[in-house]
Design brief:
Elements: H1 17-28, E1 32-33, E2 44-49, H2 55-66, E3 72-77, H3 82-94, E4 102-105, H4 110-115, H5 124-131, H6 136-139, E5 143-144, E6 147-148, E7 151-157, E8 159-163, H7 164-170, H8 181-190, E9 194-196, H9 203-215, E10 221-222, E11 231-232, H10 237-250, H11 264-272, E12 276-281, H12 284-295, H13 300-304, E13 306-309, E14 324-331, H14 338-348, H15 351-361, H16 374-379, H17 383-391, H18 402-413, H19 423-436
Parallel strand pairs: 2-3, 2-4, 9-12
Antiparallel strand pairs: 1-3, 4-14, 5-6, 7-14, 8-12, 8-13, 10-11
Length: 442
C-alpha cells in the first residue's frame, strides 16, 4: 500500500478491519456530509477515496463544516486494492466524468493520470501551500511535466519489525548500523525462525522488489520524461542483488510457509506467530498488534517483544531506500467546481488535518512537522523513524506506463522461488520492453 499498500499500496488492513466494514457500507450508499446551514443549492463535491477506517469521511465533514456553506462533500468509496481503484477512476475520467471532483490517488498512478489530461494542475500561486513542509519522498510523486498535479495527503513507508527476544538470542542488533538482508536471513536461519514479507503476485510484491533495487543503487526503469517510452534498467547489478535476496529468502528455511501468496496481513500473522522473527511492513501493524491484544487474539507479551528499525540495507554501508506509499489528493480535470475542490484539498492537506488524520486513521502524515505533535508521538512511539524513512524513501517508477511496468515485474518474478540472478532481471527487461513497445500483451 499504497504501495502497498503502500504503495500506495498499500494499502492497510489488520487493525482497520472494522474500518473496512464501514467503508463497505459507504460504498453501497454514499454518505452526504452537509456543511452546517448549507442549502440544497450548495455545490456538492464528490470525493473518491481509498477505503480507510472512516477517517477521510470525518475529515470531509470537518472541511465542509469549516467552509461555512461553500460546499458539501459526498464520499464515494473505491475498491480495496489499488489496481481496481485505478481501473474505476480511469474508466470514469476517460468518459470525462464531471462528477469526479477530488480523488485520493495512489502515488504510482499520478503520472499516468496527469499525462492523460485527467488531473487539473495546481497554479504556481498555490504550489507552496501544498509543498511547504512536506517530506522529500512524497514530493517526488506529485509533479508531472514540471507541474504540480497532486497534493501530498498522507505518506507511508515500511519499517523492519523484529522480535526482540529472538534478535537478542541471535546476537544481532537490527537497529544498529549497516544491518543487511543477508545478516537478517542468516540470523533467522540460525534461530529456526522466519522473515515475513509480501510476495503474492500483487502490487505489494512490486513494492518489495523496487525497494531492493533502489536500495542497491539502481532503478527498474529509466528515461521517464513526458512523451517518451521508458527504458528497462532492471537488468543490472542492482537488479541482480534484488533477485539474490528475493530468491535466496524464498528458498531458505527462513521463508514462511506460503510466502508467495503472502500479503500484508499474512505477513503480520506469520510475524506474530511462534516462529516469527523479522518482518518488513507498514506502520499500521503496530496498532494492529495492540488491537489483537484487546480482542484476545494475541498476548501482550507479543506486543512487548516487538522492536522496530529502518528498512534493511542491501549493501552494507549503503543506506536503504525504504518503500514509499500513501495517498495524494488530485482534482478531476472535468469538475464543475474547481474553486470549491481546491478549497477542500487545501483543508484536507493542512498541517492540522495531517495530525488529526494520522491519529484518527493510523496513516502517517506527509508533512514533517506532524511528527512532533504530542498526540502523534503517543500513538506512534516510532514516529521519528517513520518520518526519516518517508523522507529517504525510494518511490516506485514515476511514469505514465507504470501499470505495464509493475505488472511485467510481478509476472516475471512470481513465484519468488523461481527468482534467480542474473536470469530473472534479464528476462524482466526483455519482457517489459516487448510490452512497452506493444509487441506483447500482459
Amino acid at each position: 500500500m499504497s504501495s502497498v499498500r503502500a504503495a500506495g499500496w498499500g494499502r492497510q488492513r489488520g487493525a482497520r478491519r472494522r474500518g473496512l466494514a464501514l467503508a463497505a457500507v459507504l460504498a453501497l450508499s454514499s454518505v452526504l456530509l452537509v456543511a452546517c446551514g448549507a442549502e440544497s443549492s450548495t455545490p456538492n463535491l464528490n470525493w473518491y477515496i481509498n477505503p480507510d477506517n472512516g477517517g477521510q469521511s470525518r475529515l470531509a465533514k470537518k472541511c465542509a463544516d469549516a467552509s461555512n456553506g461553500a460546499y458539501q462533500v459526498t464520499i464515494q468509496t473505491l475498491p480495496n486494492d489499488a489496481s481496481s481503484q485505478r481501473e474505476q477512476l480511469v474508466r470514469r475520467l476517460a468518459a470525462k466524468d464531471s462528477s469526479i471532483d477530488v480523488m485520493s490517488l495512489d502515488p504510482p498512478f499520478v503520472a499516468e493520470f496527469a499525462n492523460a489530461g485527467f488531473l487539473r494542475p495546481f497554479s504556481k500561486e498555490d504550489e507552496a501551500t501544498f509543498t511547504n513542509g512536506v517530506l522529500k519522498g512524497p514530493l517526488e510523486t506529485v509533479y508531472w511535466n514540471d507541474q504540480l498535479v497532486a497534493a501530498p495527503f498522507w505518506a507511508n513507508t515500511q519499517l523492519l519489525w523484529f522480535r526482540k527476544s529472538a534478535a537478542q538470542a541471535a546476537g544481532v542488533d537490527p537497529a544498529g548500523p549497516d544491518f543487511t538482508w543477508d545478516q537478517m536471513i542468516k540470523a533467522a536461519e540460525g534461530q529456526h525462525k522466519v522473515i515475513a514479507v509480501q510476495a503474492n503476485r500483487y502490487e505489494g510484491y512490486m513494492v518489495w522488489i523496487n525497494a531492493l533495487v533502489v536500495s542497491a543503487g539502481g532503478e527498474i526503469i529509466g528515461n521517464v520524461k513526458a512523451g517518451t517510452i521508458p527504458t528497462p534498467e532492471i537488468n543490472s547489478p542492482a537488479g541482480d542483488a534484488a533477485a539474490e535476496i528475493v530468491g535466496g529468502l524464498a528458498r531458505s528455511p527462513a521463508a514462511p510457509p506460503a510466502m508467495s501468496t503472502a500479503t500484508e496481513e499474512e505477513a503480520r500473522s506469520a510475524f506474530q506467530g511462534d516462529s516469527g522473527m523479522f518482518m518488513v511492513n507498514w506502520p499500521y501493524v503496530y496498532a494492529a498488534a495492540k488491537g489483537d491484544v484487546q480482542s484476545g487474539a494475541t498476548d501482550q507479551a507479543v506486543v512487548d517483544d516487538i522492536g522496530w528499525a529502518r528498512y534493511p540495507e542491501v549493501k552494507a554501508g549503503e543506506a536503504s531506500r525504504p518503500p514509499l506509499g500513501g495517498i495524494n489528493l488530485a482534482i478531476g480535470a472535468y469538475t464543475k467546481y474547481p474553486e470549491q475542490a481546491l478549497d477542500l484539498v487545501k483543508c484536507a492537506t493542512s498541517l492540522q488535518s495531517n495530525i488529526e488524520y494520522m491519529v484518527d486513521s493510523g496513516n502517517p502524515a506527509a508533512k514533517g512537522a506532524a511528527y512532533d505533535d504530542p498526540k502523534v508521538r503517543e500513538a506512534f512511539p516510532m514516529a521519528p523513524l517513520i518520518r526519516n524513512s518517508i523522507n529517504d524513501a525510494g518511490p516506485r517508477p514515476v511514469t505514465p506506463y507504470y501499470n505495464d511496468v509493475s505488472t511485467s515485474v510481478q509476472r516475471v518474478w512470481h513465484p519468488a522461488t523461481s527468482v534467480h540472478a542474473p536470469q530473472t532481471p534479464e528476462e524482466t527487461a526483455t519482457f517489459m520492453t516487448e510490452v512497452l513497445q506493444g509487441k506483447r500483451l500482459l
